[in-house]
């Protein structure tokens, strides 16, 4: 081990069926530093962390931890805890049916019995010192997500660890809570704890971190001291492209939209049971617009309400000027609306079915139960779109789950293109897929618009939206707070609108 | 495409896969292997197992008899149940353990109808088709009850059907006021025994008919696509315009119809019913048939012909065990061992371990490259 | 998890000391039991006012109480075990044969009973926990295996005449202060059988285990969210394994108590007890989805179930089938209540 380092990973490899999630990744964490682990979705950050914490077993390489001679063996989260690694995950990994105090202490106390009194007292002290608004005896499930996340952090902090891993802990915290967390991180840093910090927010990285390691496509791009790596460079390292490369996608189709025409779809006061405030929305022929906002701001919920994916609780919808009721997805499909969902794995693909069946699914459902496509017809549809979208698959019979993320996404796109929709909603179509496919998808969006279809495009990456959309609806706290067009479509303007009045 | 996106299909289609390995991967490998094993065992132990002869039955009609005929005949109820069970398994990821009990209900209803509420009756008091139709409607209603608990109240299928599993036989008894109606009309027994002048048992024809109907349904409707996609990913299915709840409910209703047909065959074999013993433990066999057919009990993709084959294999096993004087009450113990062996072999952990031994060298090779 | 955040933030300070699900469901169960018993006393009167009729519910169901406790533990970890009735049956028959035909004594019988339970637990637990096979399938096979084995041991009922055994079976433990006078004015002391004492000790012991031991809390954690439990450093597989071992061991003990109560081995022993145990646990507030439940609740669940069975039969529905239909109806009702409660909670 090098002088001063608490954790070293050398040549870590991890394979999943069909994917090399990590390939020969090195990582070094020094004593008393906050080290950002950066990379796009699917770059391998979470996989690396899960390997390190024993959730996944690694397929190659070694882990060295200060205080342990030779390569450390970490086979389970328990091993990781014992080795002094504590982790806060992006998703809440606590048990909602237990009390707050139990969640802080379970799995790490000595002896066979539980001393409730001492546990509650200790937990109470920690909660108070971190000013977390929860009582030790409260059932965790009754706390808000943010509080649950704070409890997870409290647990990790209390573990006398050498290494603290924070895997996107801030996505559900508000600004104040984030500041509290940063204060905590700085205290721990002073005590010599090494902190690995994974986040999507660049501001946060430059605020607290000392060093940055960048991953891309499961491989190490490099390790940098924060002062040496300006933002623009960081982004281009993450994307693996100079920013200029991508500028050429931008088309000029945006100018052609005729705003006086009857909208393809117009919604007034739409709201759903997913908890969004009523919003107005319209999209015209050949227009590409988008919803933007932070994670959880309600942008997905808006499009889900339009498509009838959540239960619509109010509002009126007009399609091409005619009043319609969209209660369930099938209603929307029959009106010529297509929807590519945000959660590809959970809501998009039907994993065990073949690529062919996945492609024809939506059209088949519209056609009806008693009128199945013939095998030859289905085959023809599938082959057509496999060729058109350059889907990389052995055959149309291959189960979709064995395709890579980008190709799965193309299959879902093919599914909706096959229905020949008038209006296509794409919610995060570029998430977690490789950069090449991302660009292909953006080009496709512009091409569709040029053909006179309407598209709503949502992406976490603002520059993707700037490249494709001619109008952006900005969401904050589940409310539409602004609409930007033309000149206003700049990164800074969007950021300011997202942040709202109190933005610097 | 970036380097990380390797097309995995290239791996599965490696030419060095031996013939044997590909064979093992076939879904129907297990049932066919089990069937062959049983055939070979019987051929060695006692080849007379396979003799088929033409005998006169009690009515003086010439009928075929022999172990093979009895396997085909006695498997009828099981095959029909296995078909419905496969759909339920595919769509809801669980099994209906109340099929035996609802068969008792359907049988009880049919008997009550044809006996006209009396304890014994020498002629049918109601048109047979109407009686069976009423039985089917009742069984489908119970199926809908199970399906509603599963689909709309999101109760695990096996637990939801536990309710009817407990109450079913009691309800069957209650329908006939706890009496055991007996119908002596020979026409009623045609379906369970032989049609006059035809030497092949009628249940075999009924089974073939049911299989044909399902073959047609799989071809002419989207039953297969819908149930599979709901079973694999209910969320996706909903976003593609399907109604997963309705489809789950539908599979339970279809199973109800299958149960009614099976119950009808069972009661018409003897013209009477014993509420606590009729179709006892058949739910176990039906689930086993689905598993044996290579279908995942957790739902999703299915092969209905695998289940049908599985059902015949089970009946073959049962008949073989009977032949060697295993008492019927002890049969469940033997079958339980077979079930456990099967689920262990098909469990992902064991499969991974078995294939992992072979895969490891391939992985290291890739690392080097 | 983008959905739900903003809403949650608003509710942050609400329900700070909210009652845990376990306690809430336990409370419901206890209230339901007292209401049921009260209505029995009010409307059916007579026998129900005597403490002995309450104690008789215990005497008749000592075995079921133990089974229900074991079932609750498995259900708390998110599993299920439907082999308990079969194990009860097998234990009864094995003990009877041992005492009657093999010259065993009460200690060998107890060893056999617990041994059978342990064997079932080890095998089922291994299959469920380490091979990831659905507990329902495993225990369904276990149930059929146990029932098949019982008939292989003996198809005919075996009545036990061993004196040492009968002495324990007939032993009555007087409960002071609860006796009553009969029509002739004689004082008849209230009593419970030995099995009841064992069952109550089991309830108390398990209550302690679930509340104060690490293992007990691990059961809840695993049932609440097994991935989280894993991340929190709990050995999920071992916890599930132990839950099944404990449940089957208790089924063995339940079998011994059943045997002690009826005094014979019979293929019909314990028939449907897996159902009764599951129904009792569910009525007692154990959630099928795991993570929530309590053995005290299961205890009251057994009492509620049998009180309502008694009520139904006193109302004149005394044919055998009504009992099964009642259990099924109760089960159905509570399942639906649970499901509605859970669905609503998830929607929040």
Tags for this model:
heterotrimer, A: 504 residues, alpha/beta, Rossmann fold, 3 domains, six-stranded mixed beta sheet, globular, B: 369 residues, mainly alpha, ABC transporter involved in vitamin B12 uptake, BtuC, two-stranded antiparallel sheet, two-stranded parallel sheet, 16 helices, 4 strands, disordered N terminus, disordered C terminus
Please describe the biggest sheet of chain C, giving its number of strands, its sense, and whether it closes into a barrel. Answer: 2 strands, antiparallel
Number of helices of chain B: 16
**Are there runs of chain B of 5+ residues with pLDDT below 50, and where?**
1-16, 358-369
Strand order of the largest sheet of chain C: 1-4
When the domains of chain C are counted, the total is: 1
Mean pLDDT across all amino acids of chain B: 83
Query: Quaternary state, please?
Result: heterotrimer
Number of strands of chain B: 4
β-strand number of chain C = 4
Give the low-confidence spans of chain C.
1-18
Instruction: Give the helix/strand class of chain C.
Output: mainly alpha
Secondary-structure element pattern of chain C, one letter each: HHHHHHEHEEHHHHEHHH
Measured between the Cα atoms of the first and last residue of chain C, the distance is 14 Å
What is the number of helical segments of chain C per DSSP (H or I, 4+ residues)?
14
